[in-house]
Amino acid sequence: xxxxxxxxxxxTRYLEQLYHLYSDSFPMELRQFLAPWIESQDWAYAANKxxxxxxxxxxxxxxxxxxxxxxxxxxxVLYQHNLRRIKQHLQSKxxxxxxxxxxxxxxxxxxxxxxxxxxxxxxQDGQVAHPTGTVVTEKQQILEHNLQDIRKRVQxxxxxxxxxxxxxxVLEFEVNQAxxxxxxxxxxxxxxxxxxxxxxxxxxxxxxxxxxxxxxRQIVTEMAGLLSAMDFVQKNLTDEELADWKxxxxxxxxxxxxxxxxxxxxxxxxxxxxxxxQIRQQIKKxxxxxxxVSYKGDPIIQHRPALEEKIVDLFRNLMKSAFVVERQPxxxxxxxxxxxxxxxxxxxxxxxxxxxxPELNYQLKIxxxxxxxxxxxxxxxGSRKFNILGxxxxxxxxxxxxxxxxxxxxxxxxxxxxxxxxxxxTNSDASLIVTEELHLITFETEVYHQGLKIxxxxxxxxxxxxxxxxQMPNAxxxxxxxxxxxxxxxxxxxxxxxxxxxxxxxxxVLSWQFSSTTKRGxxxxxxxxxAEKLLGPCVNYSGCQITWAKFCKENMAGKxxxxxxWLDNIIDLVKKYILALWNEGYIMGFIxxxxxxxxxxxxxxxTFLLRFSESSKEGGITFTWVEKDINGKTxxxxxxxxxxxxxxSMSFAEIIMGYKIMDATNILVSPLVYLYPxxxxxxxxxxxxxxxxxxxxxxxxxGCGECVSRNIVFxxxxx
Length: 719
Hints:
Layout: H1 3-8, H2 12-21, H3 28-33, H4 35-40, H5 43-46, H6 50-73, H7 77-94, H8 98-124, H9 133-164, H10 167-185, H11 187-253, H12 263-292, H13 299-321, E1 323-330, E2 340-342, E3 347-353, E4 365-370, H14 375-381, E5 386-390, E6 393-395, E7 406-417, E8 441-449, E9 452-459, E10 464-466, H15 472-485, E11 501-502, H16 503-515, H17 524-535, E12 545-546, H18 548-553, H19 563-577, H20 579-584, H21 593-600, E13 607-612, E14 620-628, E15 634-638, E16 642-643, H22 644-647, H23 652-658, E17 661-662, E18 668-669, E19 674-675, E20 679-680, H24 681-685, E21 707-709, E22 712-714
Parallel strand pairs: 2-10, 13-19
Antiparallel strand pairs: 1-3, 3-7, 4-6, 4-8, 5-7, 8-9, 11-12, 13-14, 14-15, 14-16, 17-18, 19-20, 21-22
Helix pairs in contact: 2-8, 6-7, 6-8, 9-11, 9-12, 10-11, 11-12, 11-13, 12-13
């Protein structure tokens, strides 16, 4: 099967990542229209050889013309317009630089292969699977059909119950019963003729009673069947659809594809709840009928209590399941890192009831607390305890939300640690560090509806509470590890014995850390470099296990810091200082020195690439270039990494554009000419430089050890 066809069969979460790969530089429509031809070309070779890139580019324009002709024959005006626009854009942008479009297409194909590999591995490893786009649609159609069938059956049953309780029929039955009783009592006074009339009347009464009994039994049987159908649909909604939404919410919290809206689930659950309340009213009507007319073997007497208990249980459980945390706790200043809360800093969260009953508007008062059920556990583990400050109660309403949902948003909550004699921690064994402690924020309320009192309670995903912002990296690592490896909603003891993860799981989450805050995730080559740093050299990293300690706590070989501390600082560096260059794909980033030398050595002098420093704990970026010595021998040179402190004073693009060194004749020259593979430096970085920042930056030969750029001092080393 063609690669593009395989991609269309992926789960929704992977399709979301696929959509992010494409932009105006290489539109998805073109990928769709020319899928077989695109996959048949060697784009990687074209990206490194201009003559071949030119040939492939002109062939691409020819394929577009052929596809345009097909659309012309089909009279597809929209596709004709789109294809004409795409061709004009490609010609204007890539006609003089075909290697660039080759590089873009090659990267997209690599990313597609990574998605397919990740999805295949996930299925083989037995991870929690999400239905594919096609299956989800089919399941939703079946679910909606079942809900529609329930509504029709409820309406039909309601009409039959109304017929059963028809005042005329009931009155006729009661009068005939009274008359029959009177005639029976007069048998002895009127002789055998009266006795015969009485027997005839009794026969009629028995027939009426038999018909009534049959009708009641039919209604009771149908009602029992309808409750079973409701039970089935409810389990589908709560155990599958809602559970799937909660898992996607977990994934979205750690940078995965955005979660879907709750509106459709709310519509389904509200529809089922309305049908359940209608059935409950019908059961009450049966009780009224029983009180008016009852007899030995009456099916209402036999089955009504069980039916009443069943429908009440269904409605209670549905209401409890429908109370959810729509938006997990998050500090507004750190929107990309939810579930990490700093004491004394406000955080927000939002709860929602997926049963949209207007009569409940402004009727439900929500109270917030923390660690409600884990007090004993906290004492055993020696965890800290906290109080929630701020507006910790709020009434649910339909006015604050844009879609009229019944919700309550808490915007002014803070946590304060309860102080004990030993700094807040109990005297028990405190085996976990504070960034491994997990806490639950609980929301509770009471519903009074149609004579029922229902206690509702839901809770957030486990949160990590920090007291200093420097604890954020390790706290976020805990959030990643927990939500990557479990969908257990409240396992606060998770880190007493943290499970291992596979490289496939870790690689996906690491890529999300970039794609969720930038426009670009990690390529397979970049992920392979990270795998080597974590696991050492290996032929195939798929399935390799990674411990929590290896990921976050143990120092890397030969380094004084852990893998995660190093990577998190690089993520911060990208977001704050080099985001535009990363989004353009100009930063190779993660590449081993062996691979770096291998791809640069064949290149002409002046070719350079950008990569992250492996030795800088705080996050650094450097560039490596090719040059020839006086004997014509190829040499690979690198500059000492630039850190956040240095990038605060001058942008990285300006540093690259102005970078110069002394050559052997003491003349200032720029060793940086082409960004790998062959992008002119000015084309790549010129647009990111301020006009006033264009004067050259002077640097001595790398061998001298020091260099000066304006007021910034850098040191340059070879490595």
